[in-house]
Design brief:
single chain, about 190 residues, alpha+beta, seven-stranded antiparallel beta sheet, 4 helices, 7 strands, globular
């Protein structure tokens, strides 16, 4: 199992709902966590905040979200099964997003600052949470994956909304024309 990159098959397909939390589903969640942490070893200037099952070739509605995206030493994640956005509120904020399935490319995406989400935990507990800021952005990004949507789809056509990550960890703005005709990115 590996993290898929665009234009890999499955990244553009809607995921199916999980009906039962089986041993296989729990194993998949752990493999996703392991892959996220392994990915970080080769990316000193980035943190793996979350991962959706389609990014590892499993088109089921499950995401893992890091418990602290500010602390790389915190290697714990929460698994959300069948997550659903119940509501979005607050200002529409534009900020940089990256994706493990779109290596080294970042884009400015506008998202609401607060969301309410319902989901099921690996223990089968139904939860409903209200989150804001970076965590809201992260969860919305991952739920998009479950619907076959990449962050690129949210910014297509905006000239100054892309950047490449440099070896020193800084983002270097690039023109939209550098990515618009790249079929490997858009899938």
């Amino acid at each position: 199992m590996k993290i898929l990159s665009t234009p890999a098959e499955g990244l553009r397909e809607p995921s199916r709902k999980i009906g039962e939390i089986t041993t296989e589903i729990k194993d998949l969640a752990q493999k996703m966590i392991d892959l996220s942490l392994d990915w970080e070893k080769d990316h000193p200037h980035e943190i793996s905040s979350a991962l959706a099952a389609p990014q590892v070739g499993e088109n089921v509605r499950m995401i893992i979200v890091r418990n602290s995206s500010d602390d790389k030493s915190d290697k714990t994640f929460t698994t959300l099964i069948n997550p659903k956005v119940v509501s979005e509120s607050g200002r529409l904020l534009e900020d940089w997003e990256g994706c493990l399935s779109v290596p080294d490319l970042y884009g400015k995406v506008a998202r609401r600052e607060q969301i309410k989400v319902s989901a099921v935990t690996l223990d089968g507990e139904e939860v409903r949470v209200k989150v804001s800021g970076h965590l809201a952005r992260t969860i919305l990004h991952e739920i998009d994956h479950l619907d076959g949507v990449l962050f690129l789809d949210k910014i297509k056509g905006k000239r100054k909304s892309f950047a490449r990550l440099q070896k020193n960890g800084e983002l270097m703005p690039i023109d939209y024309s550098e990515v618009e005709d790249n079929d490997d990115l858009w899938g």
